[in-house]
Amino acid sequence: MEITQNRSETKTQPKKPQAKRQTCLKKIDLETARLLNQLKDRANKKPFGRKVRDAELIALGLKLVEQRHLAELQEQTYSEKDRLAMAHDEYQKQNGKITLDQFIGRLIRGEIQIQKSG
Predict the structure, then answer these.
(1) Burial 17-32 (b: 16+ CB within 10 A, else e)
(2) pLDDT value at 6 more than 80
(3) In the chain, how many domains are there?
(4) pLDDT at 1
(5) Which end of the chain is more exposed for a tag (fewer CB within 10 A), N or C?
(6) What whole-number percentage of the chain has pLDDT above 70?
(7) How many C-beta atoms lie closer than 10 Å to residue 90's C-beta?
(8) Among 74, 76, 42, 37, which Cα is nearest to 58's?
């Protein structure tokens, strides 16, 4: 005796590929972390809705960064040696090739005045 089961085939819709959010960890200093928590606490003082996440607050803030902010950050990262090299490069563009030693000598003697940009 042969027993057969009648299996009804279920058709399943192919799953739509969900965009998986990739994450990474970034280290931030304690003062920045405190500021982030303060802002997040202020944003979450509401009667309804889910909590605002760190990533949402950071993403919003990053969208507000303008070119002038980036220029400020770049300026803050230059050492005095970097500023000297930039002034030397600028001088060479306007006046032709000169060694760094010669350039420094002319600066010391007051033959060259560096114009501060900004």
Answers:
(1) eeeeeeeeeeeeeeee
(2) no
(3) 2
(4) 47
(5) N
(6) 81
(7) 13
(8) 37
At 3, phi and psi to the nearest 5? -105, 125
Amino acid at 44: N
Containing structural domain, residue 38:
30-64
Residue 84: how many other CB atoms lie within 10 Å: 16
Average pLDDT taken over every residue of the chain: 87
Separation of alpha carbons 26 and 90, rounded Å: 36
Residue among 74, 49, 52, 72 at smallest CA distance from 61: 52
| Length in residues, the chain | 118
Question: Residue 51 domain-assigned?
Answer: yes
Q: What is the DSSP string of 28-81?
A: --HHHHHHHHHHHHHHT-SSSSPPPPHHHHHHHHHHT--HHHHHHHHHHH--HH
